[in-house]
């Protein structure tokens, strides 16, 4: 355990003692309640701390080795590190973490940490405007240039491309049935999601592709020859059917991904500097210019759009990478720019955050809640205020 973790929990231990001795003020009680509500691990740690040890802590005579042993017993019992004290940092306190707000029991767990310190929580403003979350919607462009709005299309057969039948399933998937197709002239289709949209397609070979907001995939209505080649922009999660005779190749920007049968996530929005490809299982080969690299499960490659080099990310938070597929926003020391980009794409809004570019965030909340709930969490746990004007959001300090 790192020393900073011990120090953070020492501060919580002092609050627990002050509560037991009846000295806790309203603000401190709210902080302690938030910490206890944040996780089962925190409540287990609360039970581990003896009153005698707490008294020693408040006198500055804590046996930190005993405290550390108590904490590590919780680690071993749960297998998960208990969340540290989520408390606002002020000029008079040494707290490092932002307070967990009790309303999160309804709206989702969310904690934001500012790089800038010495910030006090603002008064909560009243807002009436709101924006609904994204939903399943996309357009399909056929080989002849005609376009079908998939969210308006009825279930069943919606088009034919040569001998490939295109169907919309009862659960909203777009399914390409190429079982009767034979090698003929290749016809390309494109599925594109708008801001505020996502979609799932089953390709002619049976591979599954999930598209995040503002993303697209271009592919043949039937795979022929000795390769299966598609083009992707934006973000997609792919489960590829294995076919050793026909490798699956994803082209995006200045790089390509070659697979036989595997599961991976590709994040390749044109306005972002790096293309991130994260391997969940199997094996893939990344190629960019003269460079190649083979990834193992749990690794993430970063290809710079300008330099074309391939790097491995030093650390990969798989929960954060796959959050969108699991219906969540998860931030792990994430920059304001990245947070805003995700919110803009999913809620189809424009966000002005001038003056807050160096803020960073940690937290988790459902992608199925309205935008105001996400912004409210940001407002409650930082000095950020917001105003919604149609689809324009203005953040101020």
- How large is the count of helical segments? 9
Low-confidence stretches: 58-62, 77-127
Strand content: 25-35%
Structural class: alpha+beta
Q: Can you count the beta strands? A: 25
Radius of gyration: 25 Å
Question: First CA to last CA: what distance?
Answer: 35 Å
Mean pLDDT: 78
Looking at the structure, what is the overall shape?
Answer: elongated
How would a textbook summarize the main sheet? 19 strands, mixed
Query: What is the helix fraction of residues, given as a range?
Result: 10-25%
What does this structure look like?
With 397 residues, the protein is of the alpha+beta class. It has helices at residues 3-20, 26-38, 40-48, 51-58, 64-78, 104-107, 318-321, 336-347, 371-380, and strands at residues 110-111, 135-136, 139-141, 147-149, 156-161, 164-168, 174-177, 188-192, 197-202, 208-211, 216-220, 228-239, 248-252, 255-259, 263-268, 274-281, 284-288, 291-295, 300-304, 310-312, 328-335, 350-352, 360-366, 385-389, 392-396. Helix 1 crosses helix 2 (26-38), helix 1 crosses helix 4 (51-58) and helix 2 packs across helix 3. It starts with a helix and ends with a strand. The model is unreliable at 58-62 and 77-127 (pLDDT under 50).
Looking at this protein, list some descriptive labels.
alpha+beta, 397 residues, single chain, three-stranded antiparallel β-sheet, 19-stranded mixed β-sheet, elongated
SSE inventory with pairings:
Elements (H helix, E strand, L loop, with lengths): L2 H18 L5 H13 L1 H9 L2 H8 L5 H15 L25 H4 L2 E2 L23 E2 L2 E3 L5 E3 L6 E6 L2 E5 L5 E4 L10 E5 L4 E6 L5 E4 L4 E5 L7 E12 L8 E5 L2 E5 L3 E6 L5 E8 L2 E5 L2 E5 L4 E5 L5 E3 L5 H4 L6 E8 H12 L2 E3 L7 E7 L4 H10 L4 E5 L2 E5 L1
Parallel strand pairs: 2-9, 7-9, 12-13, 22-25
Antiparallel strand pairs: 1-23, 3-4, 3-8, 5-6, 6-7, 8-11, 9-10, 10-12, 11-12, 12-15, 13-14, 14-17, 15-16, 16-19, 17-18, 19-20, 21-23, 24-25
Helix pairs in contact: 1-2, 1-4, 2-3, 3-5
């Amino acid at each position: 355990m790192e020393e900073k973790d011990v120090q953070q929990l020492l501060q919580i231990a002092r609050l627990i003692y002050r509560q037991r001795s009846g000295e806790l003020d309203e603000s401190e009680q709210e902080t302690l309640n938030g910490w206890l509500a944040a996780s089962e691990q925190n409540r287990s740690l609360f039970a581990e701390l003896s009153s005698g040890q707490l008294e020693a802590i408040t006198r500055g005579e804590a046996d930190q080795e005993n405290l550390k042993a108590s904490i590590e017993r919780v680690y071993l019992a749960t297998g998960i590190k208990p969340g540290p004290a989520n408390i606002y940092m002020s000029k008079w306190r040494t707290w490092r973490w932002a307070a967990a707000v009790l309303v999160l029991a309804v709206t989702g767990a969310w904690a934001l940490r500012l790089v800038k310190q010495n910030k006090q929580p603002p008064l909560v403003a009243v807002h009436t405007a709101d924006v609904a979350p994204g939903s399943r919607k996309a357009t399909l462009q056929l080989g002849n240039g005609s376009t079908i709005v998939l969210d308006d299309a009825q279930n069943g057969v919606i088009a034919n491309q040569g001998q490939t039948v295109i169907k919309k399933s009862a659960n909203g998937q777009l399914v390409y049935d190429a079982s009767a197709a034979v090698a003929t002239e290749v016809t390309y289709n494109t599925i594109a999601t708008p801001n505020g949209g996502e979609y799932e397609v089953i390709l002619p070979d049976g591979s599954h592709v999930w598209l995040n907001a503002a993303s697209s995939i271009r592919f043949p209505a039937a795979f022929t020859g000795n390769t299966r080649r598609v083009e992707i922009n934006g973000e997609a999660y792919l489960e590829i059917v294995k076919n050793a005779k026909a490798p699956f190749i994803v082209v995006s920007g200045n790089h390509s991904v070659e697979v036989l049968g595997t599961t991976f996530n590709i994040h390749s929005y044109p306005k972002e500097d790096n293309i991130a490809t994260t391997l969940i299982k199997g094996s893939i080969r990344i190629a960019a210019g003269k460079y190649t690299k083979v990834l193992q499960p749990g690794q993430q490659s970063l290809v710079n759009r300008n330099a074309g080099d391939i790097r491995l990310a030093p650390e990969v938070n798989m929960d954060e990478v796959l959050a969108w597929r699991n219906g969540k926003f998860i931030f792990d020391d994430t920059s304001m720019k990245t947070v805003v980009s995700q919110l803009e794409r999913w809620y189809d809004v424009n966000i002005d955050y001038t003056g807050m570019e160096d803020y960073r965030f940690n937290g988790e909340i459902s992608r199925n809640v309205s935008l105001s709930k996400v912004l409210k969490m940001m407002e409650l746990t930082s000095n950020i205020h917001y105003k919604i004007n149609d689809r324009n959001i203005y953040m101020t300090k």
